[in-house]
Write a structure and sequence with these properties.
mainly beta; single chain; 1 helix; five-stranded mixed sheet
Length: about 180
Amino acid sequence: MIKMLSAALVFILSISLSACGGGGGGTVVVEDPHDNFVPELRAFDIIDSYDVDTANPNHPPLALSPYLYDGLYEIFWDVDSLEDYRVTLRINDRTNIAGSLPIYTQTCGAGRPCDQAGGWVCEYTNDFYMSCEGSSREVDIYSLINKVPQKVYLFIEICDINSNYCEYDYYPVTLE
């Protein structure tokens, strides 16, 4: 009886492997499921202190003023991701994300406040601090300021939770 069950099991497995392309001398390739599911940044937009919206084509240069709308500005993003991802707003005085200062980070995904898209209201103060809604701390950006007005770069960085994969985009912004 055991020999018959073993033979039946071998027969069923060989049929299953043949149906999957695993028989006939071929190689079965098992892919890391995380290789194909990294997040993809689809859009990143800012509405600045002067209501300039980067979602509109041919928009004028962006500027943040601590004296208009209490220094508030808005950040929006759209991501294609099947799994959770981390989104971070960063600032730097150059177009390179290396050495940038993280302003705010949030984990997004299904069942979270941000899923495939999200947005924050953020603040720039006259004493050179930045923060975003939901943050319990203000980030001192004074080290990036040589003189006002100062050109800086606001980055949105999207990172996969399960790997080291990240991608980003940025806009030049003048701090007043």
